[in-house]
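Schema walk-through. Below, the input block comes first and the output block second. Nothing else is stored per chain. Lengths vary across the set, and this one has 496 residues.
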Amino acid sequence: MACIASIDWGCAVQVTAAATIGSGGNFVATTGQTYGIYLAILFTHAVVCSLATEVLARLQSVYVILNLILFFGVLIALPAATPSEFMNTASFALGDFTNLSTYPAGFAYILSWLAPVWTIGKSRLDFSFDCGLLTICIGAYDSCVHISEEASNAAVAVPWAIIGAIGISGILGTAMNIAITFCMGTDLEAIVNSDIGQPLAVILFNSFGQKATLGIWSVVVLTQWGMGSSIVLATSRQVFAFSRDGAMPFSNTLYCMNSYTKTPVNTVWFSVFIAALLGLLAFAGEAAIAAIFSLSVIGLYIAYSIPIGARFLFKGHNYKPGPFNLGAFGLPVAIVAIVFMTFVNVVFLFPTDLAPAVADMNYGTSSFRKILAFKCLVSVVFLFPTELAPAVADMNYAVVVLGGVMIGCLIWYWFPKYGGVNWFEGPVVTVDVLPQTSHNGDTLMATPEISEERRVRIANADEELLASLGYKQEFKRTFTPFEVFGVAFSIISLVP
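--- output ---
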């Protein structure tokens, strides 16, 4: 849900950037106006994601096309249209490093390349401009996992969709960023501090002028909107799955399939409602809403790390690899992944700037290492602010939000008499157990309406695998492998 808030807030800011460009800089949106646009975007996403699965599946192809239009528009048109005064030399585009933060250059570099694609904005670009290498940390690439119950041949299509989306986005995104760095000029402070509020919009405006920029920017906004639509889709399915097991508050209400669209409409609107509440943090200041951006990464990486670690830490379970697996590479990849995600989570708990009192200190190597060690300790262990006396505007509220969520979850589970520990028994089996039915050595299950004569084997392989986990088929499987790829690709996106 933090991802929904992050993406849709970014889309709202992009809309206000278009208004600023269209007005010649005379209009600068207030927080209230931006929040109103944000609510409108959330509403449209809720309406679209309440539609039938067939419609949602076809939309993924549209989102892929929008990303490709944006890519070729930037890669081809931007260098052709950029005036000579904004064209950069190879030495600047590929080798210059400009630090606009109060952090030392090395740590500012780390903060810049850890910025997630969907939340790159002023709050993160302030750290530094590194034109020698731009590496981007991408999250939510597991989004297509959450629609696996709606996908054909999900056991193979979903993992290949993740790999394909990451690989293609990495190649195209790198090419796009190289084109941008060659065409953005050298006045980086002007790009970051423009009233337009979006560095990419400033770069496009300098190259194309007002009208052409609005045309290209409309594609950027539509691409971002598609990203938000896909993340609402994935989140609603995840909430549905948790509600099916009774793990969510109001599970009895949320676990409901609309009789007309055959989709979990209740979980769609619930997800959007929570995202709308998270957006209220914008009224507490830029640092507060930036906490949602950080939390979207922190929350995802915590969720990724737990099952990856559990897979290798608990050897007693009867783990059987599926048709797609990493084989001998599984453990090394898992170690690298967990180490990297832990490092990312620590970094994202830092404020966007050092507190003024600390900024005046001498940043020798020894001093900074002590500060860094102290920050990590405070952020990870105690979830306190990362400075002893930070200014309100410089705080990173991700630790507050993350701590609040964790405390809420602990209360929800351990609360005396009413907490989940008193009634939650794990995943709820929604089909009958059939000991005489097996596939690849696994005991299978089938929906109660299947007669005894037909219980020897479930014809559909996807339903068979789902039944082996104890769940009946409740969604229509209309997502093709390409459309599954489209979900992951549209969320990773090429929007810089």
